[in-house]
């Protein structure tokens, strides 16, 4: 089965991990600081806190923002459920705002309608690696004192109006799951433009521990002393995985270039294929292209999905609208509230996209898609 996403691991990555294993530090050591510094270079110089996974990054960011019971968090439904559920875990109420037609990122007009005096955070999602319209979102938030969060799980290395992802929102979260644009096996990070938010994020991911004597209530207890002023969780990313991340970051330019090349090849190959629409983009964006999401027309997405899977092509659907999940339905959220996202979901199909996808395998994907749209199943490739 040709997967829809796949990590790229080289001997350099393996050697970096082995070197960390042979060092004196397996966690909370120099590779963590190094990885955070390397990430900051990609985030326009904004400080970063490495965490254990992308969901943890969202939880940490919401905690740093002070999200709690009685607060509202505005979220688009076209995302992985964690963008919303991690805020619910802190007691927030989720307000779903629809997405734009072309990029399926958060619609500023929907944000303007959803923002109230109770809004603590507006969370934009860079769907498929295409940045949301951050300037328009800022304007849509009006005089609100809510923070803007960028869920950039798909978009590290992307730019918006020549500004790098990481500088566009008050808080930015990254994911380094194996199918993402670089990997630490599991891992994530939070970037914060305000040093105070970054400190809150770092403290929350480290169980809330306060080791700085200048900030402790009882600093004269002894050299071993540490305090917890606000509860946090253990969301630390160990040195071993940070070493892998640092090695991967050295190849991120190449990863992004190959993804862009594959996207251009898909665009050309599918431009005149009836029954399918290729992904849109804005002139001001340089996407990172984590996904290649096509739309299958005429109600045939399920049929095409099944035929391509039968042909050995591991297509995927990204994502079930978050408010459709039973956990949200049980809270009273109903289908029909975000028609653009729901219509897109009914058509969306993610084609395989990863840096080591060969031209020949990509042509196989295109042939299988064309066959499926003709009502046929392409023959799977020989093992």
UniProtKB/TrEMBL annotation:
Active-site annotation: 180 (proton acceptor)
Superkingdom of the source species: Bacteria
Cofactor(s) required, per the database record: pyridoxal 5'-phosphate
Keyword Transferase belongs to the record: yes
Modified residues annotated as N6-(pyridoxal phosphate)lysine in this record: 180
Keywords of this entry: Aminotransferase, Pyridoxal phosphate, Transferase
GO terms of biological process kind: polysaccharide biosynthetic process
One Pfam family, short name: DegT_DnrJ_EryC1
InterPro entries hit by this protein: DegT/StrS_aminotransferase, PyrdxlP-dep_Trfase, PyrdxlP-dep_Trfase_major, PyrdxlP-dep_Trfase_small
Molecular function per GO: pyridoxal phosphate binding; transaminase activity
Family, per entry: Belongs to the DegT/DnrJ/EryC1 family.
Protein name: Aminotransferase class I/II-fold pyridoxal phosphate-dependent enzyme
